[in-house]
Amino acid sequence: MNRMKLIYLIILSAIVTTMTAQNDKPLRLGIAGLSHGHLWEVISRLDRGDFEVVGIAERNTKLWNNKTLRAKVDEKLFFEDINEMLDKTRPEAVIVYESIYDHLRIIEACAPRGIHVMVEKPLATTTEQAKRIAELAEKYNIMVLTNYETTWYPANHKAYELINNQGKIGKLSRINVYDGHEGPVEIGCGPEFLEWLTDPLLNGGGAVVDFGCYGANLTTWLLKGQKPLKVTATLKQLKPQIYPKVDDDATIVLEYPETTAVIMASWNWPMGRKDMHIYGASGYIYQDDPTNMRIYADKKQTTTVAEKLPTPYNDSFFYLKAAVRGEIEVKPTDLSSLENNLIVVEILEAAIKSSKTGKAVELDR
């Protein structure tokens, strides 16, 4: 081996070792907002070691008194101002637990600093906001990911594999998506969460946004990024005494060239559910819960339990770290991708418009 080749191999080995060491370090994570009911997701993972909370920005200082959070995060890392938090703590990524309306404000602070962002679903309250987010992401070369509980369901990924990679049930004709629960008040959501979750400006709507986004996200994914030709929706207030400002039940119909998707989103069901019924030319798939499925194919029905997803595709924080560190590629058709979630916001906005006008709304092609 000549001397130059040996030097090259030594340098390459050093680079690989450095990159590996960097990727093994905990992700430097900032938290924007403490009002979201999903805050428990980060709190429950604080001791896991794959990320380190380096700063928290929350304008309402009363929310700083979260006992579990204060026990694990130094009080010096709490800030009222998002810009001060970002400049003093320099996170690699920020996860957002603000109102949906405030997603844009946080991204406007993070993007010029080159800080990646993961928001809780959906991406934005309006297409105007969503487009501005996309512009910022492109201009400053950051990732903006959207987190859904259903992204990490093994049964959903098994369904995708059977449909799109194996052709197990033939060409899709119908997708029925059911997402909802008894209602955020009824299940005991905190006042700081309810304050914006039931506000048409801050959340964009009621059940149509809170739960309709799941079906829009999953349908767009199953159909590999297709937009529907038109959207028709009916929004209802079945409990106006509890939710006077927003809908609490929504039915959204998406028409594609060869497929119809019906999204049923509700705060008025007797139990919580997040499941799908998917019909093809030669079979069907019932995704009953995160792991259990019923499959009709080859003229017989079987039940199966989907295998656990591999890391980092099984957890939002593992996924965020891997994406930020360049260990995985976020494809445009992926569930968390900006491209998918721009379509989700278009669908939700069209659904609200359709319900108001009583007419189908065509989406821009």
From TrEMBL:
Record-annotated Gfo/Idh/MocA-like oxidoreductase N-terminal domain positions: 49-147
Pfam families listed in its UniProt record: GFO_IDH_MocA, GFO_IDH_MocA_C3
Limits of the GFO/IDH/MocA-like oxidoreductase domain: 165-285
InterPro entries: Gfo/Idh/MocA-like_OxRdtase_N, Gfo/Idh/MocA_oxidrdct_glycsds, GFO_IDH_MocA-like_dom, NAD(P)-bd_dom_sf
Membrane-spanning intervals of the chain: none
Secretion signal, residue range per the UniProt entry: 1-21
UniProt keyword Signal present: yes
Protein name, per record: Putative dehydrogenase
Organism of provenance: Dysgonomonas hofstadii
